[in-house]
Design brief:
alpha+beta; Nucleotidyltransferase, domain 5; 5-stranded mixed β-sheet; 83 residues; 5 strands; globular
């Protein structure tokens, strides 16, 4: 699901929940829809999941799409050590 599709799903009330999920040192967005399907937020070009090193960037993008409530899953978070 790309950002435009997410925005449309949010506007139509079709989103059940959104999770910002850690994968290693970055975060991806999982979208649960009311139809029971799960989607990942995709990159602008291509079907690969869009990832964010800084969770603030991901949260800002979700806010612009109309998402006002987000779960955060840090289970697999492996932040890179500071240099």
């Amino acid at each position: 699901m790309n950002l435009e599709q997410l925005r449309a799903a949010v506007d139509s009330g079709g989103v059940e929940g959104v999770t910002l999920r850690a994968q290693g040192d970055c975060f991806v967005v999982r979208i649960a829809t009311k139809s029971g399907q799960d989607h990942m937020l995709a990159r602008v070009r291509g079907p690969q999941p869009r990832s964010f090193v800084n969770p603030r960037s991901g949260l800002g993008m979700l806010r612009q799409a109309g998402v006002v409530s987000v779960n955060v899953d840090l289970t697999e978070w492996q932040p890179l050590p500071k240099k």
